[in-house]
Prior knowledge:
Elements: E1 3-8, E2 15-16, E3 19-20, H1 22-30, E4 34-39, H2 41-50, H3 52-64, E5 69-74, H4 84-101, E6 106-110, H5 116-128, E7 133-138, H6 157-162, E8 175-177, H7 183-197, H8 201-210, H9 218-231, H10 235-244, H11 258-272, H12 276-281, H13 283-298, E9 307-310, E10 313-316, H14 318-322, H15 325-334, H16 343-353, H17 357-379, H18 386-393, H19 397-410, H20 417-420, H21 422-433
Parallel strand pairs: 1-4, 1-6, 4-5, 6-7
Antiparallel strand pairs: 2-3, 7-8, 9-10
Helix pairs in contact: 4-5, 7-8, 8-9, 9-10, 9-21, 11-13, 11-19, 13-16, 13-17, 13-19, 15-16, 16-17, 17-19
Amino acid sequence: xxxxxxxxxGGTDPITNFRDGAMLHITRVYQPDRIILFLSKExxxxxxxxxxxxxxxxxxxxxxxxxxxxxxxENEDLVEVQRFDYFYQEFRDIIRNVKMENPESNVLLxxxxxxxxxxxxxxxxxxxxxxxxxxxxVSTPHKKLNEIHEDRxxxxxxxxxxxxxxxxxxxxxxxxxxxxxxLFSELQKDNVKKHISVFDYQAARRISEEMDPHHITLKxxxxxxxxxxxxxxxxxxxxxxxxxxxxxxxxxxxxxxxxIYEFVLGLRLKLIRKEYADYIRAISPVISDLLLLSLxxxxxxxIKNYIYRRETGDFWNIDALRKNPELYxxxxxxxxxxxxVSTHQLSSxxxxxxxxxxxxxxxxxxxxxxxxxxxxxxxxxISIDESxxxxxxxxxxEKILKLILGLMQANQIDVKDDQMTIYERMNDYIVTLL
Length: 434
């Protein structure tokens, strides 16, 4: 990974009292691939006078056997070097551009050179920035303020380099990398966790995509994408990611049971989020699937053999129906026109052909709930809350879910409590990855 050093230049750079200034010392220790120097007017004057900064970097490169790529930002009009707000904005724009051009780079920030405003701005950026930077402090040789002996105007860079004590093979590393957490990243992580806790995986995924790759792992991103896919019943994507990371959050895998189980998990999330209108509208598909499963298991009728599917829904295949006179006759008595397949028809077929009273009664009870509220939710602009559902059906939303689970259990899809809370367990795991 490339290392890029961004360094303001101050009065102790490049060498002071025969020891490295902060910029040169960081360069010596970290050996960055690229160096960006930021010079105010006073430092520009020194630079143009004797090339002291580039000279010392060049000499260090020769000593280390490498050539440093140096960019000098000359701000010849910058004289108000005490303005924190100016440097915060200026440095943020520079660092953002560097990261955009070098997304995989490791940016080093020299927070020991320059004016107090420059140092403060860079340190604040290292804490609040959306990018990953390493703020580096360089302590003075004597652990106290430098007493500058050199004349900055009559600076002899060659002499100071030749007698620079840090050129010794066993020089003391005075760099200290600030370990303070990146607050911007932590705020992003907190927001991701909050969205996950309420099962808003789409919002969590959007934030995770904006995060610096140094602050969130690919695995964490992958699991958030998997959770979002599962919620919208994109089971193929979910399973692919689970397989990629050798993880299993699918307690029920059987072919005809899995789709119903996944759908009911989503139904429960709508209930938790109090999305009652969507909750009621979503009841019909799962009831239809359970009725199809019940007819196959307890009446010996596989409805899929008598229908064809279009984008607009399932329709009866009259030619296939006529090969089963009893079923065809039953349908003619249930409906005047045999066209599309409805839950009303499936429920009536259950009453006629299912001889298991437990399953038959469970199906009828769930179907009665659907009749009472589903059409209102689907066709009227109305506020639907827990009280509305209880008034219309005599059941709380939680009780309706239990009725559906009862019909599932009657069809040998016995979902245990810990299997119904699989999203919570998945959330807990994702949080450990953040």
